[in-house]
Amino acid sequence: METHGTPENAAEHTGIAAQDWATASADPQYRAAVVDLLGALAYGELAAFERLAEDAKLAPSLDDKAELAKMASAEFQHFQRLRDRLTAIEADPTPAMEPFAAALDEFHRQTAPSDWLEGLVKAYVGDSIASDFYREVAVRLDSDTRALVLAVLDDTGHATFAVEKVRAAIEAEPRVGGRLALWARRLMGEALSQAQRVVADRDALSTMLVGGVADGFDLAEVGKMFSRITEAHTKRMAALGLAA
Amino acid sequence: METHGTPENAAEHTGIAAQDWATASADPQYRAAVVDLLGALAYGELAAFERLAEDAKLAPSLDDKAELAKMASAEFQHFQRLRDRLTAIEADPTPAMEPFAAALDEFHRQTAPSDWLEGLVKAYVGDSIASDFYREVAVRLDSDTRALVLAVLDDTGHATFAVEKVRAAIEAEPRVGGRLALWARRLMGEALSQAQRVVADRDALSTMLVGGVADGFDLAEVGKMFSRITEAHTKRMAALGLAA
Lengths: 244, 244
Known about the structure:
The structure is a homodimer.
Chain A (H helix, E strand, L loop, with lengths): L13 H4 L3 H4 L3 H29 L5 H27 L4 H18 L5 H23 L4 H10 L5 H15 L2 H27 L1 H7 L9 H22 L4
């Protein structure tokens, strides 16, 4: 699975990626970066739970509502695994999550969907971007952390569900496509702006992202990663029938 | 567990209560009553999921938020078991749930908590009343249905959590107790009014509730059951430090 979305500089870190947690965590900077990463991911899952539960209220049918509640529940299971992992590596989960709460809450506040379809597009776009981001990071992780990260990114079935519903809605009323395309652009803009805020704030995490604990912070490298994620987003939107 | 909250007329139905589903469901009126009951319970669990997920947003800390999200997730697991059971007895879950959606949605609409403590009291009161009600019913059910109903009523840990938090809040600021007591009275009134609406609308379910498929509908008997549930509520509120 690690080959999915491999960034061009992955080769630099065959070192850490070949180690397990026990070996890799001897480096306190690496350890701090992993605690940051798991904290961000855990808070993201908890926020995703809340968002999906909220969207369930907008569902046009009981079946749709149950489907969203199921996905929300799956996100919560992921949250629990990440929190348990933080505890297992002797990191207090709450302080690990807190630095990421403001950015994620702000993202959700700025992008509250006004209807069922906007909610579906948001969940799909948000999950896909988050998934791309964590897969980029996963290739630089020790084998234990990588296995956990890839496991909680496992598709909860949301993507297929959202794509089907959105496509059907556009087919039934093509003008819906224009509105949702605008919405998806707004989501992407807000996601990038919050992600850049997190990267700028969290040194240990950023240093790991750009692939060099010793080399310091390289904004250009982070920029390239964001470009790759944006390109993938554009392709997904086209597949959905939306101009990105 | 069936001895818990046994109503005085339980003896009448040792007949059905001693049977399993395969035998009891030969009676189409009994079958219809069970489909109603499972439908109501399933929708209730889905609504409880939504309510807890909503309350999680009001949580004063990340730990409290995670605790509520966990309970919401547990309610969703219950919902899934009930839905699967409906499917297993060849009843379509959605039409089974739909007759109860209006009453439950109206209850939640009329009693939207305005803060974290109101949300906790609501969840505690609501869960306890629902639990009392289903335990009253459980004694009249065939052994298979009874086992399922009692399993999904299993405490999700919410009661202890809510009682601790509410007691601590009243201790810290006694005036909070007066406000929450009023709130609990409003909740109980609204719950009874919606429950009576459901009982009046659903013949098969009501007939089973009053304990006689052949004897027809007896409003006095339903009234007695509501009295027992109200008394239990009063005792719980006193234990919580609230005048009921």
